[in-house]
Every structure is written in structure tokens, then in C-alpha cells.
Design brief:
The structure holds two protein chains of two kinds. Chain A is α/β, with parallel strands linked by helices. In chain A, 37% of the residues lie in helices and 25% in strands. Chain A has eleven helices and 14 strands. In chain A, the strands form three sheets. Chain A has a six-stranded mixed sheet with strand order 6-7-8-3-9-10, sandwiched between helices. Chain A has a four-stranded antiparallel sheet with strand order 2-1-4-5, with helices on one face. A four-stranded antiparallel sheet of chain A has the order 12-13-11-14, with helices on one face. In chain A, helix 3 packs across helix 4 and helix 9 (257-272) packs antiparallel against helix 10. Chain B is mainly α. Chain B has one domain. In chain B, 78% of the residues lie in helices and 2% in strands. Chain B is built from eleven helices and two strands; from the N terminus they run ααββααααααααα. A two-stranded antiparallel sheet of chain B has the order 1-2. Chain B is elongated, with a radius of gyration of 19 Å. The two termini of chain B are 27 Å apart. Classes of the chains: A alpha/beta, B mainly alpha. At the A-B interface, helix 3 of A face helix 1 and helix 5 of B.
Amino acid sequence: MCKSNPVSMHKSEYCISVSNLKKQYGKNNAYVVNSITFNVRYGTVFGFLGPNGAGKTTTLKILTTLLDPSSGSVCIFGKDLVKNQSEIKKRIGVVSQNPSFEANLTIERALDLYGMLWGLRDRKIRKEKVNEILETFELGSIRNAKNDELSIGQRRRVQVAREFMHDVDLLFLDEPTVGLDPSARRLLLDYIKAHVKSGLTVFFTTHIIEEAGYLCDEIAVIDKGKIIAFDTPAGLKQKYGRGDKTIELTFKDMLDKSFIDLLNTTISKREVNGEDNNNKNNSRSHIDVNGTHMVRITVNNAEQIMAEILQLVYINGLNIESIAINPPSLEEVFLSIINETQGKKMANE
Amino acid sequence: MLMIIDRILLLVYRNLVAAIDKVFLIWQVAFPVVYIFVAGYAYTAMMGNQDIKIGSLSVTYTSFLTAGMIGFNVMNGSTVAGSIIWNDKRNGMFQQLLVMPFSKVQYIIGNLITIILIGLASAAVIIIIGFPTMFGHVNITLWTIPYTVYSLVVGSIFFGSFTITLATKIKSSEGYNVISNGLFLFFAFVSSSFYPAQGLPEPLYVAFYINPLTYIVDISRAGIFSHVNGFTNIEVIIISFLAATVFLIATRSMVRMKI
């Protein structure tokens, strides 16, 4: 079943291969994970996204050997996960969603102990590694502090940093940036990116969709135990963004209601006339007014409608400060995927 | 096999370095010493310096109590095994260790070896501190000391497995503390730790010998006073069987525990 070469770590081969994976807690309960199939290539970051209760954590627990699957197969490094747990665990690192720490030890001592548990026996090498980690993750100032003396963000940073005490080929990150400030978050993501360049494979779950866009090579979206979308971030935007773009107009003058009404009429007219890229049924054109000087217009045919909008602006004697046309964000795409699936489900019911 | 032993020893090292509260360790030794020197001399005076009979042997109450405290201390120390699990669950380290190259069975064995080491070390300290009270009665020989050591090891396995089972079954740490303290109070005072079983009313005598701590204390005491006989060997067989059974229950319970 597990076909790839366990020694080779080439990008064309799969580091994780999941096939028809199912998990059920108790025979009479519904499947929490229901026949999911996906592959993760070596040296890539794989994003696993989904709303709360979608099955992300259960899948992660199965992949990290904490739970046994009900059925299906999981191969990691080309080896069957259930049969080769011990061997696989030696090469993976896991940063779980919940905090984990040695309450009685200082950060420096805890890192040292963690290195030892991972088989770093040489005290000198361990010490060098600890110092490197403390410096890289900017933890030097709290090296002598205990966990209960740290802020939530610092605790999280220690938890992530710890996994780099040993050499891992596959790193599971379950919401690793929760509680981190933007600079610490970027520091962590860039550190992971650098390791990925040197061959690390990352399985990444997050609620911060922009993070997934920044870090991930491929993304799977899971909802109610099933994978409902799978592609690269750009592919997902293309597939589920349906060409929607947002025109962001900032005016020097204050906007009035009559102008907004005119904008609405212009956009609606195009939809009624079927000019909205033949996408009448799924049209999600809308206008959001932001404060008194800014308006965001989401349309499917931004380039075509732009001339009409500018004409309206000219007729109404308004002065534009800035114009921007933005593609849909990954977050908008994610919401679109989830809403679409829920809509389909409701229609079927 | 060597790799498995190596992992278990790493877990033991981790328990000793990180998982056990140092204040608890001090209390672990101080508690029985207080018993020996306060209760021992107070009860001796109350009993009019009457000696205690262990079979054909006659010893002072303080030396009887000191020898009993060694077994009693094994039971007390075994609460560490359950506490390690609770603390690891609370601090997220239980789950973290299981995604590292350690299994649940290795984790249990690591905990049991930890409490065996604590039990042996505290027994050595109690013997050293309590030696003056046993002077003239202690008769440790190469033939009988293995009985004492064996009782401490098997006692640690029995009570350690017992607390591990409780820790995996009970949903709150408060519940775990209340139940383990309540049961250990019964184990402690309905046993031969503090007083001899001979001469007790029959129901109490039966209760003493339902209690595994009685076997542990009897065997440990037999080793210290060189008073090993056929009954001691029967007690060895019984407590070995009980320890093996409770260990299997603890392992099963741990393996089935939801994470």
C-alpha cells in the first residue's frame, strides 16, 4: 500500500499519503473523519483548514499516532503508520494546539531535557543547540524563567522552539501562532519557511487563513469530516473566487446616499442584463461602505465596470484619492467554500 | 530491547528531574521519621515499654514501627505515580511524550521504576535515621535482605499500578486525591504497619490480611529482623500475584485511556 521510497525525500514523492481514512468514536456515532484522501509532498507545507469541529484535530491525532484510525490507510515516509509507529515517531515533531510544558523547570533546563529525551546525549552539543534555539526564537531574556512566569505568547514560542531541538523530517503544527504578536508570528513563519527550503515537510493547521496563504504550498479544506476543496492557494482563489475582485475607492469628498444608490443601480443593472460574466445565478456583487470616504465594490467584472464607476464619480463631481483593484483574499475564498458546501447540503435536505 | 530500556530510563530521568516536586520528596522521608520518633516513643510509654512479638521474636515497639514505616512509606511514595500522570495531563506533557518516541507502556514502566527508586532511597534513609531505634534487634543477612528489597519493589509496583489505574479512571484531580487519600488511610491503619496482627479480634485480623500493605510490611519486617519463615514465603507469592494483576489492569487502563 505504502509505495514511496522511505529513504528518498524527493519533492515528487509523498511524505504523507492518506487514503479513505475514517474515524468513528463508538460504533453508533457518526464519522468524525469520513473517507478522506490526500497526499503531502516532501519539502512542502500542507495547510489543513476547516471550521471548528470539522475533523482537523482528529485527523492530526491519527497522523501523530495518538489515535488509531477506524479504517483506511495512512503512510508516512512510505511506511504504514499503524505498523511502524515507533520508527515514524522518531522523525516527526508535533506542536499541539494545547500548551505543554515542564512546570518545575526553567526554559533553558526544559529545552535541555527535551533535547535529551530526543536522544541528544552529548551535553555540549545540547547546550549549543539550546543557545541557538534561545537566540533564534528571541527567548534569551527568559531563559531562567519558569513557564508560569511567561506570557501566553512566550509560552507558545517556547513550545514551538522546542521542536527544533531535534532533527525532524516532518513537523505537525496545530495552530502554532495562537497568542503570538504579529512580529513573533512572522518570525516563526519565516523560520519554518527556511527549514522547509532545506527539506522539512510541514503539516499545518490554522484559523488564520492569511497565514496559510503565506506559508502553504497546498491547502485542503475539511468540513464535517470530508475534504471539500484541495489545491494550491492560487488554485483555490481561481477556482472558488470565480474571478471576483474588489474595487476599493477612497474619496477626498464625503460620500452621500444618492451616490451609493447610483452605484448599486449600476451594478444591479449589469446583473439583470446578464452582463456579469454570465454568472447571474452565482453573482455575489455587493457594495460595502467603509466610513464616510471609502467604498468597496465586489464584482465579477471589475475591469469592465470600472469605466462606468469612474463616469459616475465624474458626473457627481467627486474627487478620488486612491483606487485599488484587489483579487479575493484566501479568507474570502475559504468562507465561500464553506458557505457553498453548507448551501448545497441545505438544498439537498 | 536495549532501545526500549534506554527510553524507559530516559523517562525515569525525566520524572526525577522534572515531574516530581522536591518538597514532596523531603516530606516523603520526614513524614515516617516523625511517626517513628513521636508516635513510636509515645506509644511505647503508653504500653509501659512492653515488647512486641513477631512470631518467636520479641522487639521494642519503636523498632517494630520503624521496620513497618519502610513498607508504609512505599505505599505513600506510590502516590507519586498517579501524581505524575495527573501533572503531565494537566501540563500537556502526557500527550507530548506520546507523540515522541515513547509508548504508553514505557511511560507506565518509567513511572513505576521512578517510585521504586524513591521507595528504595527513602527506605535507606529511614533505616539510617531509624537505626538507633532498632539497635539490638536488626539482623540483616544476605539471605534475608532480598526479602526486604523485594517487598519494596513489589509494593511499589502494586501501589504504583493502583494509583495509575485511579489516575486514568478518575476525571478530576480533586476526585483522585480524595479517593486515593481515603483508600490509603484504610490501607495504612488496617495493616500491620503500626501494630501486629497477632491477637487482634478475628474480623480485624481478616481485614488486615485482605490488605496488601500487610503483606508488604510483613515481608519487609521479616527481612530486617531475619525472621523469614514459611508464612513469609506464602505472603511473597500472594503479593507477587496481586502486583502482577494490578499492573496488568493499570496497563490496560492506560492503553485504553482517551487522549
